[in-house]
Amino acid sequence: MSTVVSRVVRSSPHRSTSETWVVIVDLLTRGNDSAARNELLSVSGVASSVIAEQAAKEAAIVATCEGPRTRVYCLYDEEAIEGGDAKENALGYDALKGQWAVSLPCLKDDLDWVQRALKTKSSRITARDMAQKLGEEEVTKATSPGGLILNVDQFLKS
């Protein structure tokens, strides 16, 4: 069964896109200084550009690892200022445990340069066309108050 946890981070104009990326990195690393944190911060410029294009409003920044899949969305404009839909609380698990990867959603027009730029910094941090889903179509969206999503079909097979 695939467990998915979501967070929603306030971005522009509440905070700059580079500050937004640092908040996302802090969520994923639980604020711990580590090689993973350094690797994520090494792509700050590219990630900030992706966040500025607002692809993360509709498509998630997705972190995969040996534990739950983490999806991070961003709020923009009035929604970011008001912050009512934000969910920036800490994760209760290590989102980068073991073999981890982070996929950034990207506008199709920017995809080539973003992928090239990321490749020079990391093999774990990649970009995808924001229309591409990463397993979301397999998940039944029965969301609990804790932000977990249960794959009902897989659960019933067990």
Task: Summarize the topology.
Elements: E1 4-10, H1 17-29, H2 35-41, H3 44-52, E2 61-64, E3 69-75, H4 77-82, E4 101-106, H5 111-119, E5 125-129, E6 142-143, E7 148-150, H6 152-157
Parallel strand pairs: 1-3, 4-5
Antiparallel strand pairs: 1-7, 2-3, 2-4, 6-7
Helix pairs in contact: 1-2, 1-3
Short structural summary:
The protein is of the alpha/beta class and 158 residues long.
Mind explaining what this structure looks like?
This protein has one domain. The chain contains six helices and seven strands. The termini are close together. The C terminus is likely disordered. Strands 5-4-2-3-1-7-6 form a seven-stranded mixed sheet. With 158 residues, it is of the alpha/beta class.
